[in-house]
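We close this part of the discussion by returning to an individual protein. In the encoding step, the backbone of a single protein was reduced to a row of integers, each denoting a local shape. The sequence in question and its structure tokens are set out directly beneath this paragraph.
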Amino acid sequence: MFNTSKKNKKGRRSPLATVSLLAVALMTTGGAYALFSTSANADDSTNTTLAASSQSQVNEGQKLFASNCATCHGLSAQGTSEGPSLIGVGAASVDFQVGTGRMPLAAQGPQGEEKPEQFTDQQVDAMAAYVASLGPGPSIPSSKLTAGAEGDAAEGAELFRINCAMCHNVAGAGGALTEGKYAPNLRDVSGKHIYEAMLTGPQNMPVFNDLNLTPDQKADVITYLKYVQDNKSPGGFGLGDLGPVAEGLFIWIFGLGAVVAMTVWLTAKTN
């Protein structure tokens, strides 16, 4: 006969093993929970810091706006008889207008002229953040789209000729419009401000949103303009890149003047 009592005693699990397994399970669960909580708290802390920084920038922008812009645009940017509402224009519009010195206006006129900017880049960013907080609108474009290095210059040239050359000239030299207004020269204009102008349509310029010109097409236009800036005309004196008008005027003044001078000289010599 086999001794079954000894066999059962050997196969029976010790109570200490169960306690040990429970302890290990509790420690593992507790450690995982602590790790997860720490990560979540870190993320929450980061988000809180970012939110506080953003709110701080908006508050600073609101102060700058009240001091420099509210006279024309209203304390809440709702607009007045002296200036339009800025609710919904977005950060890109503020960055363009203030970043190029067009705003604040030096004086009332047919259009705001570019001049040295009155604020630092940080102050411009703060005012843009404040106006952007008032309502959704176009945001400041990424540097990848505005650098002028990644686009297709040939495609950009065609797009520019179709959409922009009738006002800005095919070489971006600018031109006169009606009622004392004008399309500005695009030489030495940053890619960011060119993109923002297409996106927001300042003054007489139409808006080229992403349905009219995609972000990549806008980048192509900037690449073309940068190419024109960096590669001067090989044909000698460019006459301001104003095309046949300037060339015709040159012929009339100097060419016809030379003919008249030669005629006077021959007549005087005969006499």
